[in-house]
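Data availability (excerpt). The following record was deposited with the supplementary files.
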Amino acid sequence: MKKISYREHLLHQITNRIRQSLELSEILNTAVEEIQAFLGVDRVKVYRFDADGCGEVIAESIATGNLPSLLNLRFPAADIPPQAREMFVKVRQRVIVDVATQRKTLQQLDAFDTGENLPVQDIRHAIVDPCHVRYLTTMGVMSSVVMPILHQRHLWGLLAIHHATSRLYTERELEIIQLLVDQLSIAIAQSNLLNQARQQAEFEAAINRVSHLLHCPMKLADIRQGVLESAVEALNGSGGRLYIMAEPTGEPAQLYTTGNQPRSPQIESHPVWQMLMCQCSLDSADRNCGNSPAVPNWQPYSRHLSERLFHEVYPGSRSQSCSIPGAYLISELRQTPAYATLSQEFEQTGIRSILLIPLQFHQQHVGYLSIFRDGYDIEIHWAGRQDKDTRNRMPRSSFELWRELKVDQAPEWTAEEMKLAQSIGLHLYMAIVQKRVEAMIRYQASHDGLTRLPNRLLFNEQLSLALVQAQQQDEMLGVAFLDLDRFKTINDSLGHAVGDQLLQQVASALRECLRDYDAIARWGGDEFTLLLPHLTSAEDITQLAQQILERLSLPFHTEQQELYVTASLGIALYPYDGEDVETLLKNADAAMYQAKQLGKNNYQLYTEEMNTKAVQLLSLEADLRRALSNQELTLHYQPQVNLQTGQMVGVEALLRWYHPKLGFVSPAEFIPLAEEMGLICTIGNWVLQTACEQHQAWCSMGLPPIRIAINLSAQQFQQPDLVNTIIQILNTTGVDPQYLEFELTESAAMRDVNFTIAVLKQLQSLGITIAIDDFGTGYSSLNAIKHFPLHILKIDRSFVQDAMQNQSDAAIAKTVVALGKGLGLNILAEGVETQEQLNFLRSIQCDSAQGYFFSKPLPATEIITFLRKSQKQSTRS
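Predicted structure:
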C-alpha cells in the first residue's frame, strides 16, 4: 500500500511538473525524464510521426552508457509500416516486448469508435517477429514498451521505453505511465491551441502594423513601401514586390520592391508572369472551368495545393469575392515548358518560392503583392543509411548517425500564411481603392469628364502659379481663348454623340500642337483655354496659334462621317494685357470675339479697343432684350420685281432695329447676337405676326394682295411647334396662306434633310410658298435638294455682284438658273444694283430679282407707292 501511495504521489508530482510548462518540447523532455527516473529504465523516448510517415525522436532520457542516444534521429516510414500505425489508433493498444523470450503482449486500452474506456486486458500474446527482434537487439534493447500518443483521434507519435536487460512491468506501473501519456495528449492539444493563439496574435500584430501604416500621415510612396516591407517580414519572405496598376485619372502604374528580386526589373511585363497574375485573379469557378484563354490548362501542383490548403481554412471560400493567393515553386515552373522562360528569371537569385496575392474584390483589380522566399539547405540525421539492403542486414552501424544534406529546398506556404497574405492584400486593396476614390473626386472636381482636360477651376490655379513664376523670372506669358466655329451646327444636325467625339478629337489635336510645359483646359461647351508660358516674343505665340489653326483645319473622322471645323482664337499677353488671372482671361475672351467678328478661322491679339467693343456688346445684349417691349424693332420691305414685266410680285420683310441712343443697328450685328442669346425664335414669331398684320392692313386700304417673304432662322425652323404657330397666326390675322412665303437658307435646310423635307411638306400643304435662300453657298447635295418641296431658288448676292467681272460667278449663276428651270422652280436673284447686272440676269432667263437697283428696303408706309404703281401696271397690262 505504501508503494502504491508513493507511486500515486510520484504521479501527482510528475503531472504537476508537466502542467507547469507551456512549451511542448519542455513538457515532453520533462515527461521522459520523470518516466525514466520513475521506472529506472535505460531509455525513454518520444517518437513523433511526420506527414510522410517518417518519424523522428524529439525527446529522450537515457541512463548514461547503457544505450546509445537516438535523439533527433529520423527513422524511415518502413520501420513502422502504415498497418502497424493504423492498429495503434484503431484499438489504441500498447505493445510490450521481451526479447529474451521473444514474446510480445498487446493490450487494448479503449474502444476507439465509441471512446468507451475498457478494462486493460491482454488482447493476445504472440511471438515477436524475428525482424523486430533483430531491430531491437541492434539498438541494444532487450525489453520495450510502446504506447501510442493520440491527438484528435490520430496517431501523433509513440512513447517508447527501452531497457538493456529483460524487465517486467507491473500493471500499476503501466497504468501510471498510461495516465502520463494521456496527459501528454492533453498537453499536445493545449500546445497546438497555444501555438495557434500565438500565431493569430502575430498575424493580428502584422495586420495592425499594415493598417497603421496605411492610415499614417506619411507620403503615399513611403506608406506603400513600408507596407510591402512589413508584409515580407510577416510572411518570412526574402523579398517582395508591390505593383499598383495605372489609375483611371491617368496616374501611371507604380512599383515598389524590397529584398531579393528576380533578374528582370520589369518582370510584370513578362508574359508568363502576367499569366500567373491573371490566373490568380480569376474567380474559383473560372479556374475550375478553364475559362481564361490566356492561362494554360496546366497549373502547378503548388497552385492546386494552394487552393486545397486555403479551403481548409476557408471552407466556403469558393463563394467569396476575393481571389485565392497563388503559391508557385520555381522548380515546378522550370519543369513545364509554358512556364520555363519565367523560371530563368529566378535561377541566379536564390528565390525558390513565390506567393502572388491579387489586390482584388469581385472583378476589380488594382494590383498585385508578390512575396518571395529563398531556397534553404537542410541536414537530416537518419538512424542508419536509408538503404533497404543495409537496414535488412541490421548491423550495429545501421543505427549510427548518417547525415543527409538537402540543398536549395523550396519553402512552401501554409494555409495560415495564405490567410494572412490575403488579409494583408485586402487591407491594401481597400486603402488603394479609398485613395483612388479620393483622387477621382479631386480629379472630377478639377477635370472635364468628356475630354479629361483640366476644367476652368484647375486652369485658374495653373494660371495663378504660372503668373508668379513669370513675374519672378521676368518672362512673358500668353493666355488664349479658343472657340470652335459652327460647332453648334454639328451638334444640332448630327447629334450630341458626334459632337462629343469631335470635342475629344479636338482636345487630342490641341495637345499635339502644344509644348510639353503648356497647359490646356476645356472652359465649357466648345471653348478651350490655353496657358502658354516662357515666351520670348509675341512671335512665339502667333506661331503656336497658326499651328493650331492649321491642325484644326485637317479633317476629323467620327464613326459616321468626315468633319471639318475651324476655330477662332483670342490671345492676351502678360504683362502687357493684364497682370492677374481675371484680367488676362477677360482680355483673351474679348480678342476671341474679335476673331469671330472678323470672319472666324483666325487669331487676334488683344488690343484695348477690343475691351471697349466687348463692353458695348454686353450693353447691346441688355438693350436687345428690351427692344421688343420698347417697340424698337420694326420691319422694312424690299420689293421683288418680275424681270420680264417689271411688275412687283412680292416683298421681303427685313428686320430693323432703331436703338434710342445708337440709332440704326445693323442686322449683321444684332441677329447673330439674338441667336446666341436664344431670342431669335421670339423675334421670328414677332416678325411673322407683324408681317401678316401689315399685309391685311394694305389689303384694307384697297391695295392688291401681295406675297410677303419672311426669313426663317435655323433655330426657329427646328422648333417642334413651328407649323402650329404659323397656323395660329394665319387664323388670327386672316391672311390667305398663298400670300405667305418662307425663306430658308441652304445651310439650315441641310442640317437634317429628313426633318427639313417633313416640315416643308406640311407648309406646302397649307399653300405656303417655299424658297431656298443664299443658294450656292451651303454646299448642299443636289440629290437632297430635288426632294425638297420648293417653289423658288434665290441666287446669293455674291454671285450676282461679281458676275460681270468673274466668269466663275457668272457660270454659277447660269447653272443655278438652269438647275431651277430643270426642277420647275422660279429663280430670284438678290443684290441687283446695276443695269448691267439686270441685263445679265435677263439674258440667262432669271425670273425675278430684288436689290437697290429697284429699291432699298422701305418702311411699310413708303412701300405703298410701289404697290399702287404695280397695281396701275397690272391694270394697263
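Summary of structural features: DSSP finds 30 helices and 32 strands in the chain.
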